[in-house]
Specification:
It is built from ten helices and 18 strands. With 383 residues, the chain is an alpha+beta fold. It has a single domain, classed as Chorismate synthase, AroC fold (4-Layer Sandwich). The strands form six sheets. Strands 9-8-10-16-11 form a five-stranded antiparallel sheet. Strands 1-2-7-4 form a four-stranded antiparallel sheet. Strands 3-6-5 form a three-stranded antiparallel sheet, with no helix packed on it. 40% of the residues are buried.
């Protein structure tokens, strides 16, 4: 079973991930992973932390001569800011834990719930791990999954379709790698100015903005996931993966919430057949998944990201010790990270699709998996 685990704090020495269950023989290039990390650091509205960090992956195990070995893969992304925090975040006893101690939780963050749950006396123990900085190494994991999916011509891309109340119209013709050289990773050029203006206005007010991202997975084969068991449904897995990204508060697939507003005759995708394409659908309101199973159409996911909870005009809070009313603590932060969230969502989607792909076409090495995949497609052509 393909799975991964991450470790590390926002201002600790590094972020680390271990991937287990990855097959042997898959080509992996550090440059490809680093390019995904670069995308995550981009996007208009990012804070000063991104000026400090220049995320680069180190592959510490599981890869030799540019190919995976089938053993656990260890990835590490070092935190350059560690040099400014090592006295405060030191591992050994004697760390200067009194400096920059946090006692005023931020509304909307894990600060209060995490601190009370684990019995901390310093909110920093919560916020360091709850920070979205952890998603850097998740993007690296997702890039490894994408490298595997690329072998089978499965391509996954993400883009921004809303910032605050400014909505974009998706243009899939512009959803290419070149999009990630732009400021907002948005395919609708007509609204870019309004989006940037909205982000700037929020920053001037000491406020933050959220938005909506969309992920499209192209060329996913029919048959991933299952209707048989609840925890193998592909839509359920993808929804959980996106909901695990910090600040994501809602996920929809295909027509999503709008499908509740209109009759079934306008929702369900009619089925057609021709000898060249076999079975296919005349529309894609289902977002490429029916009954928990990929149906061969493009998988379309959307996720709603709430505004970042660190505000430079902070909201009311209560000191966890004195119980006195205060304004919440301020940690260095972005005021809009929606474009970055799109890249994290691509990585998480890639991982879950790769996981379901390996369950369907299992094997210890890429050659075995290709044979299984080819046999399955021969079967589909004959149906």
């Amino acid at each position: 079973m393909l799975r991964f685990l991450t470790a590390g704090e926002s201002h600790g020495q590094a972020l680390t991930a271990i991937i287990e269950g990855f097959p042997a023989g898959v080509p992996i290039a550090q440059g490809f992973i680093n390019n995904e990390l670069r995308k995550r650091q981009g996007g208009y509205g990012r804070g000063k932390r991104m000026e400090i960090e220049q995320d680069q992956v180190e592959i510490l195990s599981g890869v030799r001569n540019g190919q995976t070995l089938g053993s656990p893969i260890t990835l590490q992304v070092k935190n350059k800011d560690w040099q400014n925090w090592q006295d405060i975040m030191g591992v050994e006893e004697g760390a200067n834990i009194g400096e920059l101690r946090v006692t005023k939780p931020r509304p909307g963050h894990a600060d209060l719930a995490g601190t009370l749950k684990y019995g901390y006396t310093d909110i920093r123990n919560t916020l360091e791990r709850a920070s979205a900085r952890e998603t850097a190494v998740r993007v690296a994991v997702g890039a490894v999954a994408q490298a595997f999916l690329n072998v089978f011509k499965i391509n996954i891309l993400g883009h921004v379709i809303r910032i605050g109340d400014v909505e974009a119209q998706a243009d899939y013709n512009r959803l290419t790698e070149e999009l990630y050289e732009t400021q907002l990773y948005c395919t609708d050029e007509k609204v870019l100015g309004k989006m940037i203006e909205a982000i700037d206005e929020a920053k001037i007010k000491g406020d933050s903005l959220g938005g909506i991202i969309e992920v499209a997975a192209f060329n996913v084969p029919l048959g991933l996931g299952s209707h048989v068991h609840w925890d193998r449904r592909l839509d359920g897995r993808l929804a959980q993966a996106l909901m695990s990204i910090p600040a994501i508060k809602g996920v929809e697939i295909g027509l999503g919430f709008n499908s509740a507003k209109i009759p079934g005759s306008q929702v369900h995708d009619e089925i057609a057949y021709n000898s060249a394409r076999s079975f296919y659908h005349l529309s894609n309101n289902s977002g490429g998944i029916e009954g928990g199973i990929s149906n061969g159409e493009t998988i379309i996911l959307r996720a709603a990201m709430k505004p970042i909870p660190t505000l430079y005009q902070p909201l009311k809070s209560v000191d966890i010790f004195s119980k006195e009313n205060y304004l919440a603590s301020i940690e260095r932060s972005d005021n809009c990270a929606v474009p970055a969230a799109a890249i994290v969502a691509v990585g998480m989607t890639a991982f879950e699709i790769a996981r379901s792909f390996l369950e369907k076409f299992s094997g210890d090495n890429l050659r075995e998996i290709k044979n299984s995949y080819d046999n399955y497609y021969n079967y589909l052509r004959q149906v």
